[in-house]
Amino acid sequence: CRFRAPANGRYKPTCYEHAANCYTHAFLIVPAIVGSALLHRLSDDCWEKITAWIYGMGLCALFIVSTVFHIVSWKKSHLRTVEHCFHMCDRMVIYFFIAASYAPWLNLRELGPLASHMRWFIWLMAAGGTIYVFLYHEKYKVVELFFYLTMGFSPALVVTSMNNTDGLQELAYGGLIYCLGVVFFKSDGIIPFAHAIWHLFVATAAAVHYYAIWKYLYRSPTDFIRHL
């Protein structure tokens, strides 16, 4: 039988769901590393390299931490303290992943005087989210989801005000995919393999955003081949 997770607790996945949760992010670790290295290789200057490094670290950390947490949860469920620690890390890294995903757009596109403050404010929000998880982990799930969505949408208001709007359509598509995936994120115990399906939505949205960053903020593939 399947049961919904208790109000202040987590749903206990089946063995097959544990496996799906692990593999749906584990298989993305190497592509994330390769993709990050590619952006670094395509960078024209130091600022682009730093931005590629920030974005790449956020992307790789998301998949690595998620995979490690799900492996610990699956194979080492008797180590409750370790599992709890990695679950907190899994939640915390989402805030930094959101900030890192916006970093290329905020760092490499021209912004207005007020909009430019979002470059540092988004990291302040990530730090605030981390503190919240540390203090109230799993206590107020709706509040935590609200924080994720707020952090995801707030910088979008700044990004859409840029003079150069190339790539914003893909950015919006990726955001929409994330939002649709939230339905599965909140459906553990209701929809079979809900969390693994959520992982697939995350992977798809991240791929769309990566494509936009690669295409509109870094060199074209023909330029890359020419400089090899």
The CATH architecture classification is Up-down Bundle
How would you sum up the major sheet?
none
Termini Cα gap: 56 Å
Can you give the helix content as a percent range?
over 70%
CATH topology: Rhopdopsin 7-helix transmembrane proteins
Count the DSSP helices.
Answer: 9
The CATH class is Mainly Alpha
**Number of individual domains:** 1
Q: How large, in whole angstroms, is the Cα Rg?
A: 18 Å
Write down the overall mean pLDDT: 86
What is the 3D form?
A: globular
**Structural class of the helices, strands and pairings?**
mainly alpha
Total strand count, please? Answer: 0
Ranges with pLDDT <50 over ≥5 residues? none
**Strand residue content:** under 5%
Order of helices and strands: HHHHHHHHH
Keywords: Membrane, Metal-binding, Transmembrane, Transmembrane helix, Zinc
Subcellular location: Endomembrane system
Family: Belongs to the ADIPOR family.
InterPro entries: AdipoR/HlyIII-related, Hy-lIII
